[in-house]
Amino acid sequence: MKYPYLRPILPQPETWVPLLETSYSQRYFSNYGPLATRLEGRMTENYLIEGYSSTLVTSNTLGIQAVLNALEVYGRYVILPDFTFSGTLQAVIAAGGKPIVCDVLKETSELDPKSVEAALEKYDDVAAIMHVRCYGFVNDITPVKKISKAHGIPLVIDAAAALSKPSEQTFGSEYGEIEIFSLHATKVFAIGEGGLIAAPEQISERIRRSVNFGFQSDRTFHDGTNAKMDEFRAAIGFGTLDLIDGIVDNRQKHASLYLELFEGNDFVELFDMPELASWSCFPILVPESNREKCITVFADQGVEVKKYYWPSLSVGYQGRAKLEIMPVETSLLLQNSVMCLPIYSESPDDFWTGLSQAVRKSLQLLDSTR
Ligand SMILES: Cc1ncc(COP(=O)(O)O)c(C=O)c1O
Fold first, then answer.
1. Average pLDDT for runs of 10 along the chain of length 370
2. Which ligand 1 atom is nearest residue 132's CA?
3. What element of type H or E holds 339?
4. Residue 58: closest CA among 216, 207, 194, 173
5. What strands, in cross-sheet order, belong to the sheet with 178-182?
6. Residue 28, Cα to own-chain centre: how many angstroms?
7. Ligand 1 atom index nearest CA of 133
8. If you compute the radius of gyration of the chain from its CA atoms, what whole number of angstroms results?
9. Alpha carbon of 158 to ligand 1 centroid (Å)
10. Cα(363)–Cα(130) distance, rounded to whole angstroms?
11. Domain ranges of the chain
12. 87 CA distance to ligand 1 centroid (A)?
């Protein structure tokens, strides 16, 4: 495929291997060595509001699990959206939470506050509400924050793909929500496997313990896991920090091109694009009955597009945990009509014309077969 869905870039080894000198000279390779500690400081400075701090972890999924362990969700309910990746659910189950799957809004594909309220009416003992940021978009989620505050239930945000340019983003708010980001190779801030937890300082210590097997100072231990980021991943993280502005600039240019190409096309529906986005991908809505045809037509022109979050939790989960499932009509509609187009972190000069031609041709072909 000329334009595959994913074309990850990571910093070249020569840019980050020399950073490991101190780790080697101190023989300190994990358990928050010199580089991981420094990188946490930089991430806090760059991305978080005052009063929040960073914990680097080995993946977003383990980060969510550690946060839920710290919130002591074991044996209690956790609300989460149907329209999300498997990892969100698996983290809840691994932490011993009982999942309540809620619906999402069509405008954003994110948790529907009404569905959350209905779940809170129906179930007692909800230990956490989990919101998921879709497509790397950073939407205003004040209504969900307000519900969490009104009920005194912590809000955890799976913001897997949302980490972008530091100068354009700050996370954290007076509501005290906890956000977890993925630093996976396929994400915008990519290091290979990794994650970042952004949490209010008061709870950070508890989260750090649950990332380290739940050990307490007297060596007794709580529910926890091992999700500590090692020095090698932290070194790559510094390399990525140097590249991130250029990466996001390229992605913004890529998204603008799609906006131009889809403008006025009545076959494709666009989401309201928020001001802040990492542009991890470019989502569009097409008629449910035509999605398979669209995927084939784009593929014939060399553009790989992906169904997104398909299948959703209520449709795809085959494990043994019991899911409480609220009505999820909008999620069912979205998972059958959303397609995501690729967005790249870097593109050669001749790329833009070629991609424009491929997308234009696909739209013409789809129009002519209507
Ligand atoms: C919403 C969501 N949650 C979790 C994950 C998994 O992140 P990680 O691979 O860092 O565990 C993803 C990955 O795409 C995701 O989209």
1. 96 98 97 97 98 98 98 98 98 98 97 98 98 97 98 98 93 98 98 98 97 97 97 98 97 96 92 93 95 96 97 98 98 98 94 96 89
2. 1
3. strand 338-341
4. 194
5. 52-57, 195-200, 178-182, 155-158, 126-132, 77-81, 98-102, 324-325
6. 30
7. 1
8. 21
9. 8
10. 37
11. 13-238, 244-368
12. 6
pLDDT for residue 367:
87
Domains 13-238 and 244-368 share a fold: no
Secondary-structure class of domain 244-368 per CATH: alpha beta
For the CA of 186, the nearest atom of ligand 1? 14
| DSSP-based three-state secondary structure for 325 | strand
Q: Tell which CATH classification among 3.30.830.10, 2.40.50.140, 3.30.2350.10, 3.40.640.10 matches the domain 13-238.
A: 3.40.640.10
Which protein residues touch ligand 1 with a CB less than 6 Å away? 59-61, 84-85, 87-88, 132, 158, 160-161, 182, 184, 195
pLDDT digit string (tens) for 268-314? 999 989 999 999 999 999 999 999 999 999 999 999 999 999 999 99
